[in-house]
Specification:
- The protein is 24% helix and 28% strand.
- The chain is of the alpha+beta class.
- It has one domain.
- 11% of the residues are buried.
Length: 95
């Protein structure tokens, strides 16, 4: 399991959640747990330019399910995500 540390405004701007996470607004950082998963679309998975992960707030107030995020590896989201997550899996086996 990996953790990303985001401030609330970054979180809202990049994820645009459909759920109300305003209870976290006063937190200095918004921590999310995340784990990589396969894309739902096999064509996206095969071309390896798309990535997918499941995430949820790392907070005792959150009791919901994991939320899926899929994105193109060359998107603005990908660049932002690489700067804010503690570990990125790009599909390679290099260490």
């Amino acid at each position: 399991m990996s953790i990303a540390f985001l401030d609330y405004s970054e979180f809202v701007n990049m994820f645009e959640p459909s759920q109300d996470f305003s209870a976290y607004r006063d937190d200095c950082n918004f921590d999310i747990e995340w784990k990589t998963v396969a894309c739902k679309n096999p064509a996206r998975e095969a071309c390896r330019s798309w990535c997918a992960f499941l995430w949820k707030p790392n907070h005792d107030k959150y009791e919901g399910k994991w939320i899926r995020q899929e994105y193109n590896g060359s998107s603005l989201f990908a660049m932002w995500w690489c700067q804010n997550s503690d570990e990125i899996h790009d599909g390679s086996d290099e260490e």
